[in-house]
Amino acid sequence: MTEIVARAVDVSRRFGEVTALDSLSLDIPAGQLLGLLGPNGAGKTTLISLFVGLRRPSAGRVEICGGDPVDAATRRHFGVTPQQTGLPPTLRVSECVDLAAAHFSDPLPRGELLERFGLTDLARRQTGGLSGGQQRRLAVALAFVGRPRLVFLDEPTTGLDVDARHTLWEGIRLFHRDGGTVVLTSHYLEEVEELAERVVVMFRGRAIADGDLAEVRGAVNANHVSFVTTDPVPDLPGAISTARTGDRYVVRVSDPNGYVRDLVASGVDFTDLEVRGSSLEEAFLALTTEGGNR
Ligand SMILES: Nc1ncnc2c1ncn2[C@@H]1O[C@H](COP(=O)(O)OP(=O)(O)OP(=O)(O)O)[C@@H](O)[C@H]1O
Q1: Whole-model pTM?
Q2: Which ligand 1 atom sits closest to the C-alpha of 48?
Q3: Ligand 1: which residue has its CA nearest to atom 5?
Q4: What was the ipTM of the complex prediction?
Q5: Which atom of ligand 1 is nearest to the CA of 187?
Q6: DSSP per position, 62-104
Q7: What GO CC terms are in its UniProt record (predicted)?
Q8: Contact residues of ligand 1, CB 6 A cut-off
Q9: How far apart (Å, rounded) are the C-alpha atoms in residues 268 and 233?
Q10: What is the pLDDT of residues 54-112, one digit of tens each?
Q11: Ligand 1 atom 26, closest CA
């Protein structure tokens, strides 16, 4: 059986009146690349702060590799890049890496780390003189310096241009290919689709969907059938919602094949038929709305 490297058991976290996490349970097996998705305030950062021992749960418990994340022995297992990172501005990039590496008995060689994250050319630059994106890349790279078993990356590519984002993705993928576990939060759905093999959608402190990308999309059964007609369109079974712009109809359906068969059988004279699955963004929005209505 695969080892569970991070576990949240019935975890709640309150800040005064605000319930940031609401009885959330989550098991993360070794080697998984998990994307945490959710709108602002869903509780993603709070969950990470509990996993890395920066905050304590109000109720429930978290474990990292079977231990308490507050313990020094447990902390050696993971690396983290928080949403905001402060790097000592007068240190050179290479000195920052050495400083972080000094905390570990078997760190990644500096050159290898810099190479993996596209930072080699910046090694001698002071961090205070780096662009925001360059600082971000360094902050993410530092999470990997101690050869952790798992890393928590809170919005790792915020503020990065396309090239820098791809370089970072490669670094993350390499770590994952070598068996590392990754938990990342992102507002870039493209990033989650690109990297993650499992997606947990959070909303109001709860996990409202959990599965691979296909499952998360499937969870909302969101397919769209679109066509043009001047005929009246009857209410057909399986239509979840219908939007109309001029003569073009876009119908959200659970079973597109069945819907099109029924449409043909109804005698509606249509042209320009299109059927497509939902993007993760659409799935996410639908899940969020449905979660909010529960
Ligand atoms: N230190 C704090 N004091 C008071 N409320 C807090 C604190 N930290 C988080 N919260 C609240 O807890 C809820 C969850 O916040 P959290 O930062 O975990 O969300 P998030 O999903 O990471 O959002 P974002 O995508 O904006 O980073 C929010 O309502 C937030 O205002």
Answers
A1: 0.82
A2: 18
A3: 15
A4: 0.96
A5: 25
A6: EEETTB-TTSHHHHTTEEEE-SS----TTSBHHHHHHHHHTTS
A7: plasma membrane
A8: 15, 18, 20, 38, 40-46
A9: 7
A10: 999 999 999 999 999 999 889 989 999 877 778 888 999 999 999 999 988 899 999 99
A11: 40
